[in-house]
Amino acid sequence: MARPVLDNKTARAVFLHRHGLADQPSGPGKGADLQAVIEDLGFVQLDSINTVARAHDLILFARRPGYRPKNLQRLYEKDRGLFEHWTHDAAVIPMAFYPHWHLRFQRDADLLKSRWRNWRRDGFETRFDQVLAHIRDHGPVSSSDVGKDEQKSSGGWWDWHPSKTALEYLWRSGALTVVGRQGFQKRYDLTERVIDQALLQSNARPEARETIDWCCEAALDRLGFATSGELAAFWDTVSAAEAKEWCNIALRDGRIIEIDIACAGGATRRVFARPDLMDQIPDVPDPPGRIRVLSPFDPALRDRKRAERLFDFSYRIEIFVPEAKRTYGYYVFPLLERDRIIGRIDMKAFRDQDMLVVRKLWPERGVRWSAARTRRLEAELQRITRLAGVSEVRFEDDWLAEPL
After folding, report:
1. β-strand 268-273 against 257-262: which pairing, if any?
2. What's the pTM?
């Protein structure tokens, strides 16, 4: 039997719908509504760069224009609806998913110990006990609160001082929990004082196989269709081999099927999907025509190779590229219109001047930048000012560039 085929436009629509970008942006963006958005996405990556707004704030704002950073802070730090840990990077994750992070804690502990080949000789076990005792007696700490008089260790992780290394290990391995951030610096407390005891009991800890199943199932639900490698990469907890084995078993059991998707360049790619995906396509909405500024770390673009296959959009962060060698700019934002990435914009919020300054915009190849598009862009930038904490928008001379 021939495999079902998704044309490229339909594949993009399905993917955007699963990432909350096919609906009109609306909703309060706080409380239960914000919690539901993050659960639908799976997690939201955290990033400190704030040229316009931090990545996590822009990700949520793109879906809920009523969102403000204080709403995430309340949900995370006060309501405890989220916890912070790693997926492919640091992220806030729904607390309901916490039981499946016990496997991640163990795997991160093993990984970090393997990096510190001499961790016992260098006295890290003693340091762990000292840090835990300090937090038990004095309450939550940041890395600046411990090890103030320590020298950096030439053998330590990223050349951190030993107590900072201990904090990171104890967090990654589950003994500590991040309870919030001040100036984007993590504050740690004992996990037993933060996480609901029901989530910490041994009988609440899934077996490794259960967590692998959950990771693959949950990733597929959020991606819509995926290769085994994409399933593994989504949470970055299961290995490529484990995801491949899961796909083989799920395919045999009829829980998934193979389909072909048409890539932007015309080639097709075999992927896995739920058996009812094709039946759901008539209910997938057409993405709205408004222009939306996306974070470079938006879930729809996080997998750069997938974004290139689906949208013919090649992107890389140029923060660490010398200015003279940058193709675009230090931190350039993709622009989404309907189901297309239509350009990328270099802009920065100058809060001391109460101004959002657009330095340059590059349309993608094949995109004609019309006066109507400029008006839609201006409307979006006015919305962005409310998130960025400024009130005016200014376009520099020659802001509209030729496609590269």
Report:
1. antiparallel
2. 0.94
